[in-house]
Structure prediction request, 409 residues.
Amino acid sequence: MTTPFGSYELTRFPQDPRDRLRAWDAADEYLLHHLDSGTGDRGPVDLGGGRQITVLGDRWGALTTALAAHHPTQITDSSLTRSATMANLDRAGVGTAKDTVTLLTTQDEPPARIDVLLVRVPKSLALLEDQLHRLAPRLHADSVVVGAGMVKEIHTSTLRLFERILGPTKTSLAEKKARLIFCTPSAAGTAGVAGTQGSRTAQGASADPWPVTYTVDAEGGSGAGLTVVNHAGIFCADRLDVGTRFFLQSIPNNTNGARVVDLGCGNGVVGTAVAVADPRAEVVFTDESYQAIASAKATFRANVTHDRDRADFLVGDGVAMLDPASVDLVLCNPPFHSHQATTDATALRMFAQSRKVLRPGGELWVVANRHMGYHTHLKRLFGNSEVAASEPKFVVLRAVKRMEREGRP
Prediction:
């Protein structure tokens, strides 16, 4: 990626030489060009003089890496983004020491004062809403707020969020199918920080509606009656999505004290259903999203009163952090999107990781849209795959790790 701040070799994470998707796009390039040279009647942005720069929603660390000399703070919901950022910074010869780049999650306390806020518009409007609410009190009258996204990512509802939470908002002309968002913090949008010079106090600013809580209805299978807590950005915020509902109607009701992984756990309703049905089960919740793990913890604690220590909550790359042959059952509702791109790469990586951590005789259960054709991948990987349940749109597949067939752990 060539920018006014330098040229950088960037990769996504996990790094795959076969992956043709870039670690940046035209929106990143447009934003960096604007910061250096300005756009239209808006001049370049002053990044010097010790100004605090916060980058929200950086996809793979492109913005953070290019601006590393200005000591930015990155805020992300994705542990994969965080890992990609660290790798890209290291490749650029920049460390992540406290005096260079600060890496925060969407669950961390944001900087006390933000002078320049750069926002890569996320796929989830809810996550954007939540984060703008969290960051608004840290802005002040002279803060510069610039958003960026591809044209297909920026809608009227996106601009209305900026306007309602922060202040007056305009957009740039499109360039290479990318667009910028210019927002001027106002008294109605910034609540102010006690003791921060130049901050403002909100007058009637709306409250952050996240997280959202609901109860699973009677048709929710083994999840019926559970209280579910969804932080912003988790799929299907106010009800059980159709795929998960079908999965909960299909998974084993008695795991017989097994070690169970809720892989890509989201709000954790599947793993929590297992823990409630089998108090002896040891459940591991894993997801690459910090918002998801926060949701899973809240869902678990809202429903499980017995031996809460028998659950682990891990943020990271699938089950890569677990020991080989240490798990009895993996339950997975894999995603088939990476930001705006449709791909089965994440699901296939989850399946391969699952095989590695399963004990001989251990099982992987997967729910997916029927058209994804995951049964062929499971047969190639495990040597077997069977349909545990099906309906016109979804299918639940079961694969068993069989040592005698595969001849290796």
